[in-house]
Structures are given as C-alpha cells and as structure tokens.
Design goal:
With 398 residues, this protein is an alpha+beta fold. It is built from 12 helices and 10 strands. Bound molecules: flavin-adenine dinucleotide.
Length: 398
C-alpha cells in the first residue's frame, strides 16, 4: 500500500506542476467564455491525460484507475470542467478497452492516440436517463451495416468529439438485454448535433443532444457482442465513477483551502474568525469529510485495478459519497465566507454549481445508493461474520 501512495504522489506532483504552469491562468476564461478549450485538450493529449487507460502498445499512457483518479482530482481542484473533459473522454474509450477486439483497438484507440481525436459517451436519451433499459434508439441490420435511428441527450463533448460510443436496441423486445454498443464516427451522414446546453456548471465543456437519422454504421463497429450493451455500459461506468468521486474531492479541496484562508484573514470580535469555536467546528468537519471521501476514492480505484469482488460497491459508494460531500463542503465554505461567499466574483459559487452536477451525472446518487444496497445484500450471504449470523439465527420474534 505504501508503494502505491508513493507512486500516486509522483504522478500527483507532475500534474500539480503542470496545473500551476498551464491551467490556473485559464480557469476564469474557460468559465466566462464557456468555449471549449481546444488548446487544453492538446496539452492533455501530449501529457497522456487523455489516453490514461489506453495500453502503451496502442500508443496510450498505460495507466491504472488509480492514475485516472489522481489526475482528475488534481486538475479538478482548479477546474472541475477540465476534470470532466478527461473523465468523459475516458468513459467513451472504456467500452473499446474492455470489450473491443484487437482490430477495433488498433483502429479506434490508435486514432485517439495518434490523431488526438476525442470520443464521447452517448447513452442518455430524452426519455431514458436512469432507466437505461428503456432506451429507444434502434439499430436495424442491413447487410454489412446497421442503421441507427434515435436521439441522445446531454452528450458531453457533443460536437467536439470525433467518435461516440453509443447504445441502441438491436432487439427492442428484450429490454436492456436487447442493447448493443456501437462506435460511431461523428461525421457519419445523418448525425445532427443539437444546440449547446446552457448549464449551471462545468462551463466550457459542452453538452448537446445528438440526433441519429438513418446513420449507417458497419457491423465491425459493434463493440462486444450484440445484446451485450447493458453489460458494456455497466462495466464502463464502474470504472469511471470513482473518477467522479475524485473530481468531487478536487472541488471540495478547493473549497476547504479557500475557507481556511478566508477564516484566517477575516477578523470579527477582535480575532480571525478561524479562532472562533463555531467556525472551527465547520472547518474541522469539512477537512474530515474531504479526507474520508478521498480514502474511499482510492480504495475504489485499488479494488478496480485488482479486480476485487467488491469493486462495484466501492465504485458506486465513492461516487455518491464524494459528490454529496462536495455539495455540502462547498455550501459550508460559502457559510464561512459570509456575505462575501454570495458574490459571483468569488470562486465559491462556481465550486457549488459544479458540485451539484457531480451528484447527477454518470448515474444519479439515488441510483448509486440502489447499486450499493443491492451489492451489500448479495455480500451478506457470502461474507458476513459467523458471529453475527448466529446472533440472527438465534433471534426469536417476540
Ligand atoms: C452536465 C451533464 C453532463 C452529462 N453528460 C452525459 C454524457 O456525456 N453522456 C450521457 O449519456 N449522459 C450524460 N448526462 C446525463 C446524465 O447521466 C443523466 O442526467 C442522469 O443519468 C440522470 O438521468 P435523467 O436526467 O434522465 O434523470 P431521471 O432518470 O429522469 O431521474 C430524475 C430523478 O429521479 C430519480 N430516480 C430515477 N430513477 C430512480 C429510482 N429507481 N429510484 C430512486 N430515484 C430515482 C433520479 O435520481 C433523479 O433524482 C449528463 C448530464 C449532465 C447534467
């Protein structure tokens, strides 16, 4: 475990240096213009942050989920939007890494690494969000192609991606078991990118709808097997959700540091407010929450990197726990700032807006609690302690 912390800190230091040199000066501009930062994507590609999980043999960074979370946490401390750029692109890549065949890996992963092409992950539809099984996009077989018709919504990096990993029903009668994953080039005839959503947070990273009208995709672009799309989506999101946790930790760390610095500077009743017991309780709770959440993220990452049987549970827990934590910590930081926290010119309101989104995307926190509960119910059958089992066996209804 010590080796891991050591390795993580070397990467963390590298990212931190890059952030200070390149990122910090651009954060306000990204927020204010809401324009996609192409130059930053190029920096990220050159440093390997947009190929983190792609094996070296395809030209990628060859890293782990631990590396993914480390990079996202450090960057999100300064810009959660830039953290999202990395997360969603990696989410688009994951189906190919996990389920793609060798030819597809060489083609798509090679394209991403060599041509610095972005990939999006398009699963949500206007009428299908949490309920992935109710997806309406249809893929009909026609000779060597499939014809895709339907609409996706909230596609992050919509309009700036060159490829999309997307999901359509090849057998509509089979519900979620009728879903299939396709990689679709963004310039395929029949794809129409909708207007950019005017979001409350994550400014600078666009989300749009994508309409598919008779879009022809070769059969060879099916990732995994026909009907395996739900599994592909779940295995993908299992690995990207801890990165949402890491993004949330980054946001909360920023709020904590700002709150402590402000509390040391701001004087009331003849002393810094940081010396007032009521304020200290808030700051202490914030600090403990951030550290506890960070531990959960890296435990989830470790479990995923080592195929631990409880990885799904840890992944879901890290997502909902850290994003709820970030929401609370950013709101508490506004409280510490008092009236100054309510000014738009202060960074806290951005942190609060960004934190809210982390509770919603990549599966809402209600869904993550559902996944966690299902896992712990399964687990109790196998692993819970014999002592407690016996207690329950001997229990009588009185
Ligand atoms: C900024 C942003 C970026 C996004 N990027 C992408 C992207 O790149 N690709 C993509 O495919 N999607 C993306 N999304 C979509 C996102 O993943 C969905 O918004 C999310 O999964 C929720 O779906 P929904 O909005 O349809 O809400 P719904 O599923 O309609 O849920 C509405 C409410 O009902 C609750 N709810 C639903 N079902 C249950 C249940 N069984 N039990 C308890 N409560 C329940 C939810 O928790 C939520 O509070 C993005 C969203 C945002 C805001």
């Amino acid at each position: 475990m010590f080796d891991l912390i050591e390795a993580k800190s070397i990467l963390k230091e590298e990212v931190a240096k890059f952030v200070q040199e390149i990122v910090v000066d651009k954060v306000k501009e990204i927020e204010e213009t809401d324009e996609f930062p192409w130059y930053m994507a190029e920096h990220f590609f050159k440093r390997g942050y947009l190929t983190l999980l792609i094996p070296k043999k395809y030209g990628g960074f060859g890293g782990s989920i631990m590396d993914f979370c480390t990079v996202v946490e450090e960057i999100s401390k300064y810009s959660a939007s830039l953290g999202l750029l990395i997360i969603v692109h990696t989410t688009g890549i994951l189906p190919i890494i996990l389920f793609g065949n060798e030819k597809q890996k060489r083609l798509f992963l090679g394209d991403i690494c060599n041509n610095h092409h972005l990939i999006g992950f398009a699963i949500t539809e206007p009428k299908a969000g949490s309920d992935v099984g109710s997806i309406q996009m249809i893929a009909k077989s026609k000779g060597k192609n499939y014809i895709l018709n339907g609409k996706k919504s909230f596609v992050t990096n919509g309009g700036v991606s060159h490829l999309y990993s997307t999901f359509a029903k090849t057998n509509p009668r089979r519900g979620k078991r009728g879903l299939t994953t396709f990689v679709v080039p963004a310039d395929a005839d029949g794809i129409v990118v909708g207007k950019k959503d005017d979001k409350i947070g994550m400014r600078g990273i666009p989300s749009t709808s994508l309409s598919f009208k008779d879009v022809e995709v070769p059969n060879t672009n099916i990732i995994g097997r026909k009907g395996q799309g739900f599994l592909v989506a779940m295995e993908t999101l299992n690995r990207s959700r801890p990165a949402i946790g890491a993004q949330s930790v980054g946001i909360a760390e920023a709020a904590l540091e700002l709150a402590v610095l402000f509390a040391m500077k701001r004087r009331q009743f003849g002393k810094p407010i940081a010396k007032l017991e009521g304020m200290q309780f808030i700051l202490a709770d914030m600090a403990a929450s951030v550290d506890a959440a960070r531990s959960l993220v890296y435990k989830a990452a470790y479990y995923l990197d080592h195929n631990h049987p409880n990885a799904t549970k840890l992944s879901a827990m890290s997502k909902f726990f850290c994003s709820d934590m970030a929401m609370k910590v950013t709101v508490d930081a506004v409280q510490v700032f008092g009236g100054y926290g309510c000014l738009k010119s202060r960074p806290l309101e951005r942190l609060m807006r960004d934190a809210k989104i982390t509770q919603i995307y990549e599966g809402t926190n209600q869904i993550q609690r559902f996944v966690t509960a299902e896992q712990i119910i399964k687990e109790h059958l196998k692993t819970y302690d014999r002592y407690f089992r016996k207690e329950l066996e001997e229990m009588e209804w009185e």
